Amino acid sequence: MQLSPSLSEMETEPCCEEQKGGALDPTEPEEAEGISELAESNSVNESPCGPAKEDLELCGEDPAETESQAVESRGTDKKSSPDCRQEGEKGECKVEKKLKKTNSWKMVRFQDPSLEEDVVERDSSAEILFPEYAVEEWTSTPFEELFMAEDWENITEDRLLRKKVLQSGDIHVPHATWDQEVTVKMQGVVEDRTVVEKDCKLVFVIGEGDVIQALEECVMSMQKGEIALLLTDSQYAYGLLGREPDIPAWAPLLYQLQLLDIRDKPDPLTLPIADRIRIGNQKRERGNVHFQREEYGLAARAYCVALEVLTTRSKDGNDVGMKEEEEEVREYRVKCLNNLAAAQLKLEQFDEALHTSRDVLTLQPDNVKALFRAGKLLSDKGVYDEAMEVLKQALKLEPTTKVRSCG
């Protein structure tokens, strides 16, 4: 008899929390009875299941302020905490503003983060980024005609990703390749020519999922300095889910973009610890966006990239940084690992999820979330004695958390 239901039945509803031990939300009322029975009897006849919800570690706000706040479902709805709602029309709260920036697909930048506000302001302006190229294709031609036009180049064989060069670039500079960092200037519109994306200095690493696939594929076909129109079908952009409120489901997009720079991405082992933490958290937040859109493979990849960055190891293999920095890195690694385990569960990578949960417990032995996950996965594998011990430990640490009984 299993201690828990099948993993496919587990539903993940991410919420913002910053609890050190990764404790589950104590407001889940029906969750502890099964574990309480387990603690009182060493029998597996009345088997508790794992936590009813797999919570992502999303943002660094006070749990008391964010307990009722849900990050956008599938990259859309944003709800504010009670404190935020009281502000009414006076302005957005900091939590909502942070989540909105994440949802807008602003890219990971290696510059001083103080520049980000300027970028957002600049992006939201009505300025046309390529006024000298207000060509008919950009301003009025139906997308259907552009998909069939003979003077456009196919980036993919299916003719669903196409470009038209408006200004040639430097032919002496090699094309950008996978795992390189690029800077682009870009502006994107839907078919009625409403601007839905704009950035004067967009920085991303090809292959790390920081931008839609269309942009990654296109920049690898461009020369440095090249200006081009890019037409993409929804399958290379925002697909079935779209991106509320401005990009509908299945919407093709048209971009003007210029490839400004190509370079090797920085080795994280050469960066200051503060920069590693900032970049690692940006990657983690990108993974959270993918998770909310149910793009679990992309989410797992983003969390793995974040874990590569979130380290105190230096180029020579020695630890660097102060004790406070090392503790901060450890806490953020725990968050990434917990989120990675949640993504692996959605991908039905159960052995990998168990391994990841054990990595969490190596860093933080009293992490209740990881204990519940590990206990459930062990029970599904039939390792009941170890599963029971792990779940008892979770109950001891978080006695108010309730786990449903499973028949």
From TrEMBL:
Superkingdom: Eukaryota
The UniProt record lists the keyword Repeat: yes
Keywords assigned by UniProt, alphabetized: Isomerase, Repeat, Rotamase, TPR repeat
Protein name per the record: peptidylprolyl isomerase
Entry's Gene Ontology BP terms: negative regulation of apoptotic process
Biased composition annotated in UniProt, kind: Basic and acidic residues: 74-91
Per-repeat ranges for TPR: 334-367, 368-401
Region (Disordered): 1-91
Domain PPIase FKBP-type as annotated: residue spans: 179-263
A molecular function GO annotation: protein folding chaperone
GO CC field: cytosol; endomembrane system; membrane; mitochondrial envelope
Catalytic activity annotation: [protein]-peptidylproline (omega=180) = [protein]-peptidylproline (omega=0)
Entry keyword Repeat: yes
Enzyme class: isomerase
EC number(s) on file: 5.2.1.8
Gene3D superfamilies attached to this UniProt entry: 3.10.50.40, Tetratricopeptide repeat domain (1.25.40.10)
A Pfam family reported for this protein in Swiss-Prot or TrEMBL: TPR_19
Region forming the signal peptide: none
Classification via InterPro entries: FKBP4/5/8-like (IPR050754), PPIase_dom_sf (IPR046357), PPIase_FKBP_dom (IPR001179), TPR-like_helical_dom_sf (IPR011990), TPR_rpt (IPR019734)
